[in-house]
Design goal:
The complex is a heterodimer of chains A (141) and B (89).
Chain A: E1 2-10, H1 16-32, E2 36-52, E3 55-67, H2 72-82, E4 86-94, H3 96-106, H4 109-115, H5 132-135
Antiparallel strand pairs in A: 1-3, 1-4, 2-3
Chain B: H1 5-12, H2 25-29, H3 39-42, H4 55-58, H5 62-77
Chain lengths: 141, 89
């Protein structure tokens, strides 16, 4: 089964319920195309690096799913484009390393992966030790 | 003509930039996937203006430099990293 990942930004001026409803709507669309949803990650409100449509923050969602149907992508992306509540979206196909990475991240193995390396003297904790929840810390600027 | 401060520094300390053995951190630690959503990690590969750093500075192999490049470009599309900035770090 081919795995994909879609990350989209929902307009922050909407109420919390509407934001959730938008995310639900996207999920429903995917299921309508015959996709099996692996994970939905709500990263939450984040500052944008540059303003989009005069907004300076957005609610980020990431949905990882698998789909084996043909021809779903064009229709799906067209619907996303037409959806006025979405500021941006990005659909990516995941290779086996990407799938494994996401899986490890969900199970919290990303931080410990470094320590399992042969050389314990390696202090290179910089690369992989940023699980999703911590990303929100950027807001505490 | 007085030499600029940087010239003098370089002349008096010839060991600048000579020592560190550069290696590709992805090859060395077996990292196969670069997450475009991880902007903290990607900050290592861009300069203060938000531009991508060249391979000779980061030490990446060509394969992973290209992946880093696509990851940064995706992050820029999703407004996780800026296209143009100043004093990013």
């Amino acid at each position: 089964m081919r795995h994909y990942e879609v990350t989209f930004i929902v307009d922050p001026v909407l109420s919390g319920d509407e934001v959730k409803a938008t995310a639900e709507q996207v999920q429903k669309e995917l299921k309508g195309f015959g996709a099996t949803i692996v994970a939905v990650d709500e990263v939450g409100l984040r500052q944008l690096a540059y303003s989009i449509n005069k907004r300076s923050s957005g609610v980020y969602y990431t949905i990882e799913f698998g789909c084996d149907v043909a021809d779903w992508l064009v229709k799906f992306e067209l619907n996303m484009k037409r959806n006025e509540r979405l500021l941006r979206f990005l659909t990516v196909k995941l290779d086996k390393y990407g799938i494994k990475y996401n899986d490890d991240k969900r199970n919290g193995r990303i931080g410990t992966k470094k320590k399992k390396e042969d050389t314990p003297a390696v202090a290179e904790a910089a690369p992989e030790v940023v699980p999703a929840p911590e990303v929100v810390d950027l807001d505490a600027d | 003509m007085a030499a600029s401060r940087e010239d003098v520094k370089f002349l008096s300390n010839p060991k600048i930039g000579l020592r560190r053995k550069k290696y590709c951190r992805f090859r060395k630690f077996g990292i196969k996937h670069i997450d475009y959503k991880d902007s903290d990690f990607l900050l290592q590969f861009i300069n203060e203006q938000g531009k991508l750093l060249p391979r000779r500075i980061t030490g990446n192999s060509l394969k992973y430099q290209r992946r880093v490049s696509t990851a940064v470009k995706r992050a820029r599309h999703l407004a996780m990293l800026p296209f143009v900035a100043d004093l990013m770090k």
